[in-house]
């Protein structure tokens, strides 16, 4: 009898020892299910917030990025015809920088490869996009190329600032100054203003692009990551530009009256309107410094048929003197006549200077900047030494 009681007692004790293990597994399972449901809820909320964006804006490639990455880089986006004629100046600029603080992307003509046969700078080796398109001046393909550059650079979550540059652009300061200037401001630098003179808005764009959202500005922009995503992943405004924003053919007197008639056509330069108009439609103009960081000196001809007025002046060796460069650096405000608006320049850490870059510079002018130490210390004997 005693043995039986002991056996029953032992079984009860064993059962009590087994219960906590079962309960533990059950509780762990519940926690896993709870976490999964919570994650699904957060994801659904994110999708709901995304769906509340203005009608017609789709970000089908939008991804969550690690905005808390301690490494913050500037992505330099070069939009070029083929090679980079001022690669020697940019090489010295990047050589005096921490390679952890920048990335480089190049859009060139399809099939063009940046290797030792076209550039002596290792910074540009194989930095070309593989999906580049043929670009025509004043055509929507210019915007398409820009979007490809932004999209490629957005793949790196460390890229927080995106600077669009041409093959004739030069830096006016060393890397440290430019990095500090850009990282000290959360805002994008987009030249955008209301233009009442040129009548480039095409009524065919309405109602998709309202006329009161139409803006004009410099193509050479500097974007924070949030705004770069808006440009890269826009699939609504861009098709409208492709259809209704086209450059009027240049005057060709050899074609007589036919060319004169063409001058009556509606004229629209897509790359001068797309980004400022898109960001205006997105309602983020209050997040922008409405000015460009790239200085250009435009031909001031007032002759309507003078095609030279369509392009900025090219700086030669003589016009790249230290005094002339300093005069550009000393510009501390920009006046927009059409809006009677003055933009005063500078950031929290750097007041006064409006411009970090300039264009269009010849090779001779760029060489003068290099030898004058504008972008950093210069030693011709070690300039292209292997940096690996």
TrEMBL record:
Of the GO CC terms on this record, one is:
membrane
Q: Which GO terms describe its molecular function?
A: glycosyltransferase activity
The way this protein sits in the membrane is described as:
Single-pass type II membrane protein
Localized where?
A: Membrane
Keyword Nuclease set for record: no
Membrane-crossing segments per the record: 21-44
Task: State the UniProt keywords alphabetically.
Answer: Glycoprotein, Glycosyltransferase, Membrane, Transferase, Transmembrane, Transmembrane helix
InterPro entries in the record:
BC10-like (IPR044174), Glyco_trans_14 (IPR003406)
Primary residence: membrane
Pfam families in the cross-refs: Branch (PF02485)
- Is Hydrolase there in the keyword field? no
**Protein name per Swiss-Prot or TrEMBL:** Core-2/I-branching beta-1,6-N-acetylglucosaminyltransferase family protein
